């Protein structure tokens, strides 16, 4: 947790993030990035090694935390899981519910702050909790998050985090117009330095400008912070992967791989990681 900020401060900034994601939702629904004008293809957001680590999901209770539009959540349902998605954005949950219905996927969506997930889900326990790809950066307190995850999992249950590598986050957003192709460290790699404030009218997708709430706040979390939060909460880390591929070309010099994802031709650096932990 950031030393100089109180829980009241964190709650205030998370409410700003909630309003920002409500405002982002119609932009994302209209974007080519998500491609929701066609039949959704949730598999495109998964690396092959994610399915290897997750294992058989048929008949399992799977919870997707911070699910936004629920595109990945649909993939779990299609693999036979009893899938639940949770997000703090009312607009996102409404959109996700509609997307799943259109796709014929049996998914339940719940609106709640991730820190309130245990109460919001009525004490329900899960075989698998999945989260990531731009989720942890919106959480100010990973110790509290890990404690919540521990309560949500059944004994022997698995947490799977697939998240943008903190090195990628420290490189900051894509270069501004007129900047060169060099990769520059713009933010801390390690956490504890307080939130990074953004005031942006455009998000990571294409589409129109965001209207209304344009402020958002992100927190940096190094790999050690993630691992220690989980082990302190009683979870055992079973596997940690680092990948040099992303599901979209963040930088113009990225090249497409055989997997259909994208990597930098050089330098070869981690852009994504997968962490499997069990209770």
Structure description:
By secondary structure, the chain is an alpha/beta fold. It has helices at 7-29, 48-54, 71-78, 90-103, 117-120, 142-152, 166-170, 223-232; strands at 61-65, 82-87, 107-111, 126-132, 153-164, 196-199, 215-218, 236-243, 245-246, 255-256, 262-263, 272-278. Strands 3-2-1-4-5-12-8 form a 7-stranded mixed sheet, sandwiched between helices. A 3-stranded antiparallel sheet has the order 9-11-10, with no helix packed on it. It has a two-stranded antiparallel sheet with strand order 6-7. The longest helix has 23 residues, at 7-29.
Oligomer: single chain
The total count of helices amounts to: 8
Q: Which CATH class is shown?
A: Alpha Beta
The CATH topology comes to Rossmann fold
Rg over CA atoms = 18 Å
- Tell me the number of strands: 12
What order do the helices and strands come in, and which of them pair?
Layout: H1 7-29, H2 48-54, E1 61-65, H3 71-78, E2 82-87, H4 90-103, E3 107-111, H5 117-120, E4 126-132, H6 142-152, E5 153-164, H7 166-170, E6 196-199, E7 215-218, H8 223-232, E8 236-243, E9 245-246, E10 255-256, E11 262-263, E12 272-278
Parallel strand pairs: 1-2, 1-4, 2-3, 4-5
Antiparallel strand pairs: 5-12, 6-7, 8-12, 9-11, 10-11
Helix pairs in contact: 1-4, 6-8
At a glance:
The chain is α/β, with parallel strands linked by helices and 279 residues long. Helix content is 29%, strand content 23%.
């Amino acid at each position: 947790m950031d030393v100089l900020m109180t829980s009241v401060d964190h709650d205030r900034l998370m409410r700003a993030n909630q309003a920002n994601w409500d405002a982002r939702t119609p932009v994302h629904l209209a974007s080519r990035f998500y491609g929701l004008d066609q039949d959704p293809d949730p598999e495109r957001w998964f690396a092959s090694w994610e399915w290897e680590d997750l294992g058989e999901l048929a008949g399992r209770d799977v919870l997707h935390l911070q699910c936004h539009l629920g595109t990945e959540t649909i993939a779990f349902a299609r693999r036979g899981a009893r899938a639940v998605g949770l997000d703090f954005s009312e607009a996102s949950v409404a959109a996700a519910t509609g997307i799943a219905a259109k796709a014929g996927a049996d998914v339940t969506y719940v609106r709640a702050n991730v820190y309130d997930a245990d109460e919001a889900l009525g004490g329900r326990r899960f075989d698998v909790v999945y989260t990531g790809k731009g989720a942890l950066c919106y959480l100010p307190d990973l110790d509290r998050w890990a404690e919540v995850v521990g309560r949500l999992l059944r004994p022997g249950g698995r947490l799977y985090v697939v998240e943008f590598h903190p090195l990628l986050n420290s490189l900051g957003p894509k270069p501004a117009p007129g900047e060169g192709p060099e990769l520059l460290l713009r933010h801390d790699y390690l956490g504890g330095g307080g939130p990074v404030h953004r005031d942006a009218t455009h998000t990571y997708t294409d589409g129109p400008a965001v209207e209304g709430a344009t402020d958002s706040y992100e927190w940096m979390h190094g790999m050690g912070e993630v691992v220690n939060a989980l082990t302190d909460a009683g979870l055992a880390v079973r596997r940690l992967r680092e990948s040099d591929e992303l599901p979209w070309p963040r930088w113009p010099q990225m090249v497409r791989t055989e997997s259909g994802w994208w990597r930098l031709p050089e330098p070869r650096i981690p852009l994504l990681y997968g962490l499997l932990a069990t209770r």
